[in-house]
Design goal:
- The chain is of the alpha/beta class and 496 residues long.
- The protein has two domains: 177 residues, AMP nucleoside phosphorylase, N-terminal domain (amp nucleosidase, domain 1, 2-Layer Sandwich); 289 residues, Rossmann fold.
């Protein structure tokens, strides 16, 4: 990414209230995108490339917050929208209209409770030209090469995209702003485009409550439940967005809606996603079939995290490791033995991943409500313990090497995604939880034979999915506690 030279002063800034600050972000971003689109269209049509003055307009807006720290900070219990160190904080912003509710949620308490001053002006970070193309194929009819575009327009530079703030690797230098948010504009734009690529749906459709699964059967149950919800009087949901861009809406004929969902080209996408949208346009539930393995789990959560969801839950299958477990039992993870290795450099294995009390309690309450079990009856079906996550599906072939570690970890279940998803939630400050269903017992000779597996899936998947959805219903009323201080570092950016 090419930035403005450090020595060039930024434009004068007026202090703005939160609503006007976001208005200004939207206006500056729209102006920059329009200017770059017009220059691209002219150049592809054979016209002149942008000169330096025109290219200087292709920049993300920058939001700055200044706090003198003269008065003692207010006693605030929430984990976010807090200031500890006086000074200036800054971040560049993309798609401010789409992120408006989130931005106001952060800025109102910072301005109102701390008296922080907000200013907005064009920043130094240029907008890569692919990120101003809405459909992505607008330049396909021109004869201009990618190399020619790169000579005259900003291009994505992966060397300028990073998670240094989230990973605590940023260096504070006197005279420079501290980070205001975990992700800057170019990092967010990078992930927004990746989400479309992997899930097959517009990033704007992703809801703040996310179910992650490793079996397509959960998706099928989610679609069936969603279509039923759209037909239920009093339902808060109005639309189900499908991979490939299609959707079904409230009032559609259920049979036609089911046929539409069945015909969605989900197989084209590596991690297809479905999004049930609430009437307010903000709430709702998404489900993503992440497939098998920790690499997929890290990839998709790297990108989902820029949307700042309220919670992601892993609902999938696992191998039971204890003789007392029965196929169909549930495992509520309260610890993770991470043998996947994929995040060892970013979140070393010796770093504990805390179980979030609000999520754990909600999962248990939801399980009781859906199954109808309580007390000892619930304990027989739902066991709390450590889940071991491997990057090797054939870990059983190394049982002689792994036996002692599993014993020391007191693990009760094994899978290939949960530890990675929890580590990503911890690392990227997204509340997380895991509820798995025992589908086989590899150490005790109970494997999934075709006939038994079919019966198991038909019985268990619908109930398991219902528990995940009921958990979100519980957590919606606990947002203040859900975004826990357990996920915040001592030098955390103010934004959630």
């Amino acid at each position: 990414m090419t930035d403005q030279p450090e020595g060039r002063p930024l434009p004068e800034r007026d202090t703005l209230p939160p609503e006007q600050a976001v208005d200004r972000l939207e206006a500056l971003y729209a102006e920059a995108v329009l200017a770059e689109r017009e220059a691209l269209a002219r150049f592809v049509a054979g016209g002149a490339p942008p000169d330096a003055a025109e290219r200087a307009r292709f920049r993300y807006p920058e939001l700055r917050l200044s706090w003198s720290g003269g008065e003692p900070p207010p006693p605030v219990r929430r984990a976010w929208a807090k200031l500890v160190e006086p000074g200036t904080y800054a971040t560049t912003v993309t798609q401010p209209a789409a992120f408006r509710p989130y931005l106001l949620e952060q800025l109102r308490p910072l301005a109102g409770e701390y008296g922080a001053a907000l200013t907005v002006a064009p920043g130094r970070q240029e907008i890569p030209y692919p990120y101003v193309l809405e459909a992505g194929d607008e330049l396909s009819q021109g004869g201009v090469s990618a190399a020619a575009l790169a000579r005259h327009f900003p291009v994505p530079m992966l060397s300028a995209v990073g998670d240094e703030v989230a990973d605590g690797l940023w260096d504070f230098r006197p005279g420079t702003p501290r980070p205001l948010a975990l992700f800057d504009a170019v990092r967010v734009d990078y992930s927004l485009r990746r989400l479309v690529h992997y899930t097959g749906s517009d990033w704007r459709a992703v809801r703040p409550w996310i179910l992650l699964t490793n079996y397509q059967r959960y998706v099928e149950q989610f679609v069936a439940w969603s279509i039923a919800e759209l037909g239920r009087p009093g339902s808060p949901y109005v639309r189900l967005v499908l991979p490939g861009g299609g959707s079904v809406a409230r009032g559609d004929d259920p049979a036609a809606a089911a046929a539409m969902a069945a015909s969605a080209p989900w197989q084209r996408f590596q991690m297809p996603a479905y999004h049930l949208v609430a009437a307010d346009g903000r709430d709702g539930v998404s489900i993503v079939n992440i497939g098998v393995g920790p690499s997929n789990a890290k990839t998709i959560t790297d990108h989902l995290a820029v949307l700042r969801p309220h919670c992601w839950l892993m609902v999938g299958h696992c191998g039971g490791l204890r003789a007392s477990q029965v196929i169909g039992d549930y495992v509520l993870a309260h610890g993770y033995l991470r043998r996947d290795r994929i995040l060892d450099e970013l979140v070393p294995p010796e770093i504990p991943l805390p179980a979030l009390a609000e999520v754990q309690v909600a999962l248990q309450q939801a399980a009781a409500a859906v199954t109808g079990d309580a007390g000892e009856a619930l304990k027989r079906r739902l066991r709390t313990g450590t889940v071991v996550t491997y990057d090797d599906r054939n870990w059983e072939l190394r049982w002689s090497q792994e036996r002692r570690r599993i014993n020391l970890g007191r693990a009760i279940a094994v899978d290939m995604e949960s530890g990675t998803l929890a580590a990503q939630g911890y690392r990227l400050r997204v509340p997380y939880g895991t509820l798995l269903c025992v589908s086989d017992k590899p150490l005790h000779g109970e494997i999934k034979l075709p006939g038994a597996a079919t019966a198991f899936y038909q019985r268990a998947v619908g109930e398991h999915l219902a528990i995940g959805l009921a958990t979100f219903d519980i957590l919606r009323g606990q947002l203040g506690a859900l975004h826990s201080r357990k996920l915040r570092s001592f030098d955390e950016p103010p934004f959630r």
